Amino acid sequence: MTFFVFANRAGVIGFGHRMPANTLHIADDHDQGRLHDVVEVLARHAYDGETLLVPGIPEATCDADALDALLAFRRRVISALAEEVLA
Q1: Could you write out the three-class secondary structure of 65-80?
Q2: C-alpha span between 72 and 87 (Å, rounded)
Q3: pTM for the structure as a whole
Q4: 6-50 pLDDT, tens per residue?
Q5: Residue 29 burial by CB count (10 A; 0-12/13-18/19+): exposed, middle or buried?
Q6: Which of 8, 53, 59, 62 is the most exposed place for a label (fewest CB within 10 A)?
Q7: Could you tell me the residue ranges of all domains in the chain?
Q8: Please, which residues have CB within 8 angstroms of residue 29's CB and are 6 or more apart in sequence?
Q9: How far is 6 from 40, CA to CA, in rounded Å?
């Protein structure tokens, strides 16, 4: 089964078997634990200590800046997942 990681416009990251409406795809993997571990290391942690955020999205002043932040984060996640497979 494939697991997805996604984010909403506020930058809040979620995980699941399906992507909710109004979210953007960050990455997917068959190993939910591995996916969560990689994202947790690269994401920013909210003040509540539980919520994961895409770095740069909460501060973005426009949608274009938010999308740039999401794409940069997506590249880092995909790269980290690929490195883990090769290790």
Answers
A1: HHHHHHHHHHHHHHHH
A2: 23
A3: 0.92
A4: 999 999 999 999 999 999 999 999 999 999 999 999 999 999 999
A5: buried
A6: 62
A7: 3-86
A8: 2, 3, 35, 81
A9: 13
